[in-house]
Amino acid sequence: MTADDTRATARPAPAVATDPQPSLLARLRGPLVVAALVAAALLVLPLFLDQFRLNLFAQYLCYAIVAIGIALAWGRGGMLTLGHGVYFGLGGYALAMHLTLARIAEDPMAPGGLPDFMEWSGLETLPLLWRPFAHPAFALAAVVAVPGAVAALLGWAVFRQRVRGAYFAILNQALAAAFVILIIGQQHLTGGTNGLTDFPTFAGTDLYSPEAQWVVFVIVVITTALIYLLFRHVAGSRYGALLVAVRDGEDRVRFLGYNPTWIKTFAYTLSAMAAGIAGALFVPVMGIISPEMLGVVPSIMFVLAVAIGGRYSLAGAAVGAVVMNAAQTTFSENFANGWLYLQGVLFVVVIAFAPRGLAGIAQSIAATVQRSWRARATGGAAGSAAGAPQETDASGSPR
Amino acid sequence: GCGPAGGSDDGDTVKVGMLHSLSGTMAISEVTVRDSVQLAIDEINEDGGVLGRQIEPIEEDGASDEATFAEKAQKLLQSDQVATVFGGWTSASRKAMLPVFERNNGLLWYPVQYEGLEASDNIVYTGATTNQQIVPALDYLAEEGHESLYLVGSDYVFPRTANQIITAYAEANGIEIIEEEYTPLGHTEYSTITSEIEREEPDAVFNTLNGDSNVSFFQQLRSSGVTADDMPVLSVSVAEEEVDGIGVDNIEGHPVAWNYYQTTETPANEEFVAAFQDAYGEDRVTSDPMQSAYNAVYLWAAAVEEAESFEVDDVRAALDGIERDAPEGPITIDGETQHLAKTARVGVVNEDGLIDEVWTSEEPIEPDPYLTGYDWADDMAGEE
Amino acid sequence: MTHPLLSLNGIRVAFGDFTAIDGIDLTVNEGELRFLIGPNGAGKTTLVDVVTGRTRPTSGTVTFAGQPIHGRSEHRIVRTGIGRTFQTSVVFEELTVTDNIDLAAHFRLSPLGLLRRRRGITATVGGVLERTGLAPLAGSLAGTLSHGQRQWLEIAMLLAQGPRLLLLDEPVAGMSRAERERTGELLTEISADHTVVVIEHDMEFLRRYARDVTVLHEGRILTEGTVGEVQADPRVQEVYLGRNQVTAPEHDGGDMLVRTANEEG
Amino acid sequence: MLSVHGLSAGYGRARVLFGVDLDVADNSVTCVMGRNGVGKSTLLNTITGLITATSGQVTFDGTDITRRPAHARVRAGIGYVPQGHESFAPLTVAENLDVAWEAAGRGPRTLVDGALELFPRLVPLMGRHAGVLSGGQAQQLAIARALVTNPRLLILDEPTEGIQPSIVAEIEEAIATLHARGIAVLLVEQYLDVALRLADTVTVLDAGAVVHSAAREDLSTEQVQSLLAI
Amino acid sequence: MDAILNQIPIGLAIGAVLLLAALGLNFTFGQMGVINMAHGEFMMVGAYTAFVMHAWFELNPDYALVLAIPAAFVLTGLLGLALEVSVIRRFYGRPLDTLLLTFGIGLVLQQIARDIFGAPNVDVPAPVWLAGGVDVLGIRLHFARLFILALAVLCVIAIAYYLNRSKPGRQMRAVLHNRDLAAVTGIATRRIDATTFFLGSGLAGIAGVALTLIGPTGPTLGHNYIVDAFLVVVVGGLGQLRGTILAALALGLLNAFAEFWTDASLAKVLVFVAIIGFLQARPQGMFTVRSRALT
Ligand SMILES: Nc1ncnc2c1ncn2[C@@H]1O[C@H](COP(=O)(O)OP(=O)(O)OP(=O)(O)O)[C@@H](O)[C@H]1O
Ligand SMILES: Nc1ncnc2c1ncn2[C@@H]1O[C@H](COP(=O)(O)OP(=O)(O)OP(=O)(O)O)[C@@H](O)[C@H]1O
Ligand SMILES: NC(N)=O
Ligand SMILES: [Mg+2]
Ligand SMILES: [Mg+2]
């Protein structure tokens, strides 16, 4: 058999189907949609929601930020993190420490210049740990840097040793448990179980005037949007694909010349930073940060929100967080005594019957509609479908 | 659920909030407190309500989570516009709700003994402050001739503050503090501590453990063979409700300090216990926090009648001096601190799981949340 | 062209009591196309594992392009210019074929570069898709590929990596005849400017494309030489080829195996 | 013995097989051939119950087994060696064999001895974890494991993949021996010479459908080659 | 010095409790890869079984506890079985999802317990013959602890036999590793799954009964043990019985000594740090089987 024969028997190879270069509009579509949603949230929601509900919505958005981060680390990177409460807490405490000092600075009743719990614990001067938090800039930087640093350190230590899957999940869970115990045990520094609460002012302005609350709301909405866009970009980059590759074949990735330790650590750190920002926003929104909100159960709740929304989709995860928390509020307001049943059933039903969450349901509906019209080949749902296991479609997936 | 629209001022009902943990770890304690509040509301409604209006409770679940308490408080005040709220148990939940009530000028009735060092205009404290529980308990132990104490507590603000007070008191009264141990909330392994207690042989143990930990602690202490005769363990967070879960065998004979027991002999208590068991079952017991919560509703109603208004400012102005013959005996609101004058009592757990009074302060003790009236407490941190 | 590119010195690998590689010295020169054969369990894959950092040798050294590389981590070794495929193909099932290859092609990008969005298909990736016949499957998720298609994807990823030394572990196992031939052509082509080491059990393939052959047996080198030399070696027949293979060729004129052997001489 | 009629199957929405018909007569060797990715493994997976058919029928010994779970098919007498030398990595080689022998209902213990006779190289490896075997060792184990389930129909998906030439010859002999013992064989094999030496019937698959099926003696090697080169 | 020696039996006793709590997980988590967060609630069901024995059936505490052990095993086993058959079986191959699913189920079980038995803890009287303890070489051993230790040892022996000597044990390991391959090898994977889950859940029930001897019996009982129990399995190595035993005892001792030298809060943190450190040295736990497969 000759070489020519060989060619003849080879499968017909048409010219490489290069991806069409997406048009500028297509590329901007995601950001434009997000901008429209932001505008809608800022302009329309206040017409329908009272101050309290608006505030609750801002709270849900804080959870949505955490969810976006988890969707990257878990949905894309396969790192099931059951300890994101820790990072949420670190961000929250960083800002709350500043706000506490700000309150004391203005409170003539606190002559020692110390938070009450420090006085009860017999401290006479402000601990070193607290001092830099008097500066708002330091506190704001710490909101991102502290969770980031802790996550980077832990991530590096465990990923380097190829601790993953269930091991990683359980370890994170233990981290959350240990962290809560640590915070509670260091009452003279942290306020113990009481947490930090009562933040009347920020940068000299009354935090609870309607105007200030409005500003907080705007900041939360815009931050959520920006974080979504940032994470969407990351997920859509080569790095995003690499993350999925590490999730599905960490060892194999090494033989492509990449070091999975850093790939994972980066995503984990990024998602911890998002959680830190969320925690910090939560503080002026809800007026409190306490250990109860950082432990194992709240951490699992974060992940559940992502599962419900759809772990493979950043937008889905964010929506999931809002929906799950809104459902929880609704259930508990209407059935104070039995809402846990409803919540439990919601979890079970969604996870059991919609493994790809709300986003998955939305996608299959969209796909069905699309098919019944006529396949429009290009443009996947913004930042969503890539990396999702697809049991369908041998003939190519959206790119 | 959400009641009919409208503020508290119109219609023939008045809305009040009930905000306790119905789920999560604190549900163990708080559900019974909710039951007592409900009982008082039902009784008052039966008698024609307050200012001629029926009380309409709006119930929310604090879910053993501080942020949820803050959120639900905000909801009750802003969305439901309730006239007042009965709620909370842990100090953390109170601290979480406090700024919300202050900002919205609401009024919270908080029913549990606590660590003191607080007096908000927007909270009425119907449980004991430290000088009505911890200090009398120490007096009792001193009177009984105990000269060395071992302190064990859950790791949070109430036990830590209580132990500071105990330490200061001990120093002033020549009592030796052998050891001060804290365990995380929900801790269940007490072998290390019980064997240390066995080894150190203190005269008595002062126990500020909270919740589930008490069960493990007493069970494991009992396994070590330590009995109340050898070494009494005085508890300040164990009431009738907890005794059954701990197991009567394990705690029988040990003292507890409160203002009220199911066995307290007052006419009002006979009625209260009867009414409670009538409403919720013969097997149910009553306890100090339940009674304080029950009182709170009546005190609020009395203040409203006095003020002839549901407005918080009017009600607050009417608080000072409101009296009542409560199940625990006479109580009076101190308008300045918004705490109550209460009678202190030490009791001992009997074989039926109830508590028999063995010591009492006879007279109601004026509330002193900052312990300003005690010389030995001068060194302690306090704001005033 | 005879600079040693890769040299193994006194490599020993023991797993507990069992010695999988028992003192191997091996040199692969720049530009070689070397076949590595030997019975199942002889230690071929383990040897590749040692070179690529997957298994640490119990003793011995590995030198690549003048630098010692044993003890380095896997991704560093790749970065010095060694790429491999796996006997049991492992591809990223939830990425498209294109993404799989694209990642292989871009490991040299800086962290910031990685964070940029991929726009279209780069020339390297496009070329590899074409060469391996995977172009029609470019958009499919790798998880939906058949066994043989995965083998191709492994090869495609290796090509995209552009290493100096390519180590292929049974690349044509499971491939159809036609595709085996295409792989052979491809390897010949690549070996023009790369160094290639192939592990194979397919004798027909070996005879057609191999230049030098090294035979491993029980963790040692049994013999080295040209295809003809090795095939004729009775020890190789004994432990590896089996007597039948060499002694009973002519009974069927249509037998590929024999025909090829005849052609080659 | 085995009769496949109008079988269609796929993965989720992706359809791979389109109405495949196939018969394996008692005591015969049927060889399925086709280029990479045409659906050979999918066909075998559907016959053995790993994938559920979307339509069509699989009949074994006259009983319709289309909806039966995979393990029941094994117990009914269908042994399967899937593609890709898979084994139970955490179990030792001996345990791999035992687990299969027990699961299929403990035929005579001689089955295990017989399998080991066929693959003597497994004997010194009995205590080793299957996860550390070399590719070829694992493939030998996979075949041995199917044999100890005491099959009346043995289905093999590229059994010689990764196996050294001398053992390929031995496997070939073994299949012939099994055949002689009355066991029917359904084989997917890329080595044309091996396939053609063993097969009684050759079925060629392309794009999920049967494009040719004939008795071995009616086909020349060249014909098969051209069928495979579509 | 005596005080230090005294921490050894304390540590072993803590370890025995951890071991008992972790044994069931060794099946459901270690063998099947199901991260069953409802395991704690299964323990709670076991504990309430003991309560029901004496409160509803009014059995004498002296033997109610002994009867409760098989009853709890069967009851929680059946509960687990029901769970497996109805939902969990949809999840094989998605171990991390089972975590979330079972977490939801755990919440519901807690609420059910609250509605049946009330929110407060209930009293499960210990048999008289378990009161007190003995002094051995100046170290005090409590009968209740010895009983738990003995129970743990019995369970370990039974499990070891099941896993290594018996046919289903082997099949279980085969199924966990490769479900499809197991099916085409003739293993009735569904039955194996169901059996495994039954056993793992049943063991949780036994643990629950034992826990009534040393801790509170209430709706949230499981919370106190679940995190530690998972850690034991992780440190021991998934599905490794030897590892689970050693890890439980090691963590028990570590807890006891850390608490002795610092305090209970800091001890928990130290244990966590120690585990991270340990995983640096042995990332896959104490005992694991190496496989050459790439992941
Ligand atoms: N981690 C390990 N523990 C114990 N033995 C091992 C381990 N890894 C490999 N082996 C053994 O080392 C020997 C060499 O295996 P290797 O995979 O290198 O063989 P090979 O030459 O590639 O064989 P094949 O042609 O079958 O792929 C085999 O006997 C194998 O069982
Ligand atoms: N899990 C899957 N999901 C979707 N499509 C799949 C999946 N597995 C295989 N396919 C597709 O089904 C078709 C047939 O695959 P199959 O594995 O049956 O081929 P094959 O004939 O056995 O090929 P080979 O000779 O390469 O093993 C292929 O085109 C493949 O892309
Ligand atoms: N106030 C208390 N007991 O927490
Ligand atoms: Mg090999
Ligand atoms: Mg195939």
From TrEMBL, chain A:
<feature type="transmembrane region" description="Helical">
    <location>
        <begin position="137"/>
        <end position="159"/>
    </location>
</feature>
<keyword id="KW-1133">Transmembrane helix</keyword>
<dbReference type="GO" id="GO:0015658">
    <property type="term" value="F:branched-chain amino acid transmembrane transporter activity"/>
</dbReference>
<feature type="transmembrane region" description="Helical">
    <location>
        <begin position="86"/>
        <end position="105"/>
    </location>
</feature>
<feature type="transmembrane region" description="Helical">
    <location>
        <begin position="339"/>
        <end position="358"/>
    </location>
</feature>
<feature type="transmembrane region" description="Helical">
    <location>
        <begin position="266"/>
        <end position="289"/>
    </location>
</feature>
<keyword id="KW-0472">Membrane</keyword>
<dbReference type="InterPro" id="IPR017778">
    <property type="entry name" value="ABC_transptr_urea_perm_UrtC"/>
</dbReference>
<keyword id="KW-1003">Cell membrane</keyword>
<feature type="transmembrane region" description="Helical">
    <location>
        <begin position="32"/>
        <end position="49"/>
    </location>
</feature>
<feature type="region of interest" description="Disordered">
    <location>
        <begin position="380"/>
        <end position="399"/>
    </location>
</feature>
<feature type="transmembrane region" description="Helical">
    <location>
        <begin position="166"/>
        <end position="185"/>
    </location>
</feature>
TrEMBL record, chain C:
<dbReference type="InterPro" id="IPR003439">
    <property type="entry name" value="ABC_transporter-like_ATP-bd"/>
</dbReference>
<dbReference type="InterPro" id="IPR032823">
    <property type="entry name" value="BCA_ABC_TP_C"/>
</dbReference>
<keyword id="KW-0813">Transport</keyword>
<dbReference type="GO" id="GO:0005886">
    <property type="term" value="C:plasma membrane"/>
</dbReference>
<dbReference type="Pfam" id="PF12399">
    <property type="entry name" value="BCA_ABC_TP_C"/>
</dbReference>
<dbReference type="InterPro" id="IPR017781">
    <property type="entry name" value="ABC_transptr_urea_ATP-bd_UrtD"/>
</dbReference>
<dbReference type="Pfam" id="PF00005">
    <property type="entry name" value="ABC_tran"/>
</dbReference>
<keyword id="KW-0067">ATP-binding</keyword>
<feature type="domain" description="ABC transporter">
    <location>
        <begin position="6"/>
        <end position="243"/>
    </location>
</feature>
<protein>
    <submittedName>
        <fullName>Urea transport system ATP-binding protein</fullName>
    </submittedName>
</protein>
<dbReference type="InterPro" id="IPR027417">
    <property type="entry name" value="P-loop_NTPase"/>
</dbReference>
<dbReference type="InterPro" id="IPR051120">
    <property type="entry name" value="ABC_AA/LPS_Transport"/>
</dbReference>
Automatic annotation (TrEMBL), chain D:
<dbReference type="GO" id="GO:0015807">
    <property type="term" value="P:L-amino acid transport"/>
</dbReference>
<keyword id="KW-0813">Transport</keyword>
<dbReference type="InterPro" id="IPR027417">
    <property type="entry name" value="P-loop_NTPase"/>
</dbReference>
<dbReference type="InterPro" id="IPR017780">
    <property type="entry name" value="ABC_transptr_urea_ATP-bd_UrtE"/>
</dbReference>
<feature type="domain" description="ABC transporter">
    <location>
        <begin position="2"/>
        <end position="230"/>
    </location>
</feature>
<keyword id="KW-0067">ATP-binding</keyword>
<dbReference type="GO" id="GO:0015658">
    <property type="term" value="F:branched-chain amino acid transmembrane transporter activity"/>
</dbReference>
<comment type="similarity">
    <text>Belongs to the ABC transporter superfamily.</text>
</comment>
<dbReference type="Pfam" id="PF00005">
    <property type="entry name" value="ABC_tran"/>
</dbReference>
<dbReference type="InterPro" id="IPR003439">
    <property type="entry name" value="ABC_transporter-like_ATP-bd"/>
</dbReference>
<dbReference type="InterPro" id="IPR052156">
    <property type="entry name" value="BCAA_Transport_ATP-bd_LivF"/>
</dbReference>
<dbReference type="InterPro" id="IPR003593">
    <property type="entry name" value="AAA+_ATPase"/>
</dbReference>
From TrEMBL, chain E:
<feature type="transmembrane region" description="Helical">
    <location>
        <begin position="95"/>
        <end position="113"/>
    </location>
</feature>
<feature type="transmembrane region" description="Helical">
    <location>
        <begin position="266"/>
        <end position="282"/>
    </location>
</feature>
<dbReference type="GO" id="GO:0022857">
    <property type="term" value="F:transmembrane transporter activity"/>
</dbReference>
<dbReference type="InterPro" id="IPR017779">
    <property type="entry name" value="ABC_UrtB_bac"/>
</dbReference>
<feature type="transmembrane region" description="Helical">
    <location>
        <begin position="197"/>
        <end position="217"/>
    </location>
</feature>
<feature type="transmembrane region" description="Helical">
    <location>
        <begin position="143"/>
        <end position="163"/>
    </location>
</feature>
<keyword id="KW-1133">Transmembrane helix</keyword>
<keyword id="KW-0813">Transport</keyword>
<dbReference type="InterPro" id="IPR052157">
    <property type="entry name" value="BCAA_transport_permease"/>
</dbReference>
<comment type="similarity">
    <text>Belongs to the binding-protein-dependent transport system permease family. LivHM subfamily.</text>
</comment>
<feature type="transmembrane region" description="Helical">
    <location>
        <begin position="41"/>
        <end position="57"/>
    </location>
</feature>
<keyword id="KW-0029">Amino-acid transport</keyword>
